[in-house]
Amino acid sequence: MSTSPTKQSIPNLPPPHLAPSLLNPPSPRTHRNLRRLQSAHTLGQSNSQPSLISQQHKQVLQRNHSPANSTSAPHHSRGRSNSDATNMSIPNPGSAGRRPVHSKKPIAADALSLDRLVREGPPDGDVIGALESVRLKILDQGIKSDTDGMSSLRIYVWLILLNAPVLETDAYLALIHRGASPAYSKIRNDTFRTLTTDPLFRRRVSEASLIRLLNAVAWKLHDAKEERAESLSKSTNKLTHTANAHGSPELQNSTPTMKSRARALTLTTEGSDVGTSEPGTYVQGMNVLAAPFLYAARSEAEAFVAFHRFITVECPGYVRGAMDGVHKGLALVDKVLAIVDPKLSLYLIGKGMNAELYAFPSVLTLCACTPPLPEVLRLWDFLFAYGAHLNILCVVAQLVILRTSILSSPSPTKILRSFPPLQAETIKAVALSLIKKIPDDVYAEIVAHAK
């Protein structure tokens, strides 16, 4: 799988409105200097239906053997560089997906606005350069939106960064028309509680819309599990048939036993998500994860394809039955805090407070549980651009921001029972400043924990 920006290539920003005693912020850097850090991008490929970004590559290569010589690119390109969460080691700076450090040729995408890049596609077919430019524009300028966080551009940027495949609306409607999924009752038990204190969400997104989306995703995940179980069953039967065809007396004599074991294995695999890369059909918390997609999207179908891609590619470990990815993330919150702020970490441990007690909702929902929603959207812009695994650092960043209040409180439980309102820009800046303090092996754990 391809990689998103590596630890070494993620730029730093000066943390705004923070006391100098909290951390040593890096110096501000211009857009030109950020360019010199050179991201290590390679483009992800969809495992099923190809994304527009993949189709674009094919069309460019068909017109000319060299993409660099292409003079035009299709409109409305959609694609992303997948999270590097599947890589257990940090890619080398000189990897093939990295733009040459010695190259001083300006990237044409830099001259275009984010809106034009999305509408017109990468200039000269330079998809990697365009993705790099999109990331830096998000980091430097953000995605323009109104006071409610609404933007006609945001959902398309998310679809590009997630490399979401093209989905026809009829395919989404077909899932809706199948009726209640096996997880329907669980979904109905959660949807009415979703972001109940956020008037912006309640005004724009109906519970019925959220139910339809989650039910459609549950059907999609259910079908994937059925296909996996059927494929395993066929493989087992084929192996047994091949062995018998070769006349193995041992296998021939034990065929009934082998069939029984194969069926037991199939049933066990079908009913369990443990040890597989597939997510479960529904777990509590998926309703909150889906909420920002519905709020930002211009249709349920757009929200569906983005949300499904996110939970199956970026963080399948968060939505498996055991939520093993979430628990790994919580352990990493404790580990990272101990590295970047030992005093604060020891104080919380001394009070019997580990991340399991206060950070579970923030890790599971990528901070979507903490209002206001417009700030959540701005934080997610950053996470989708540079990797959803950075949410671990965003949670730690909130603890660092609250450092003085926590250390001066005899009962920090009251402070951490509900985090204060999100300030996306401050959290991003602090999280970026913490990256360089984290050893490579720990950062590799952060990258891989959600898988």
UniProtKB/TrEMBL annotation:
Give an example GO molecular function: GTPase activator activity
| Ranges of compositional bias, category Pro residues | 12-28
Q: Where is the composition biased (Polar residues)?
A: 1-11, 43-92, 232-257
Q: Which top-rank group of organisms is this from? A: Eukaryota
Q: How is this protein named in the record?
A: Rab-GAP TBC domain-containing protein
Q: Name one GO cellular component term.
A: mitotic spindle pole body
List the Gene3D superfamilies hit by this protein, alphabetically: putative rabgap domain of human tbc1 domain family member 14 like domains, Ypt/Rab-GAP domain of gyp1p, domain 3
One matching Pfam family, short form?
Answer: RabGAP-TBC
Which stretches of sequence are listed as region Disordered?
Answer: 1-31, 43-103, 230-257
What range(s) does the Rab-GAP TBC domain occupy? 148-387
Organism listed in the record: Cadophora malorum
Which GO biological process entries does UniProt record here? Answer: negative regulation of septation initiation signaling
**InterPro entries from the xrefs?**
Rab-GAP-TBC_dom, Rab-GAP_TBC_sf
Which residue positions does the secretion signal occupy? none
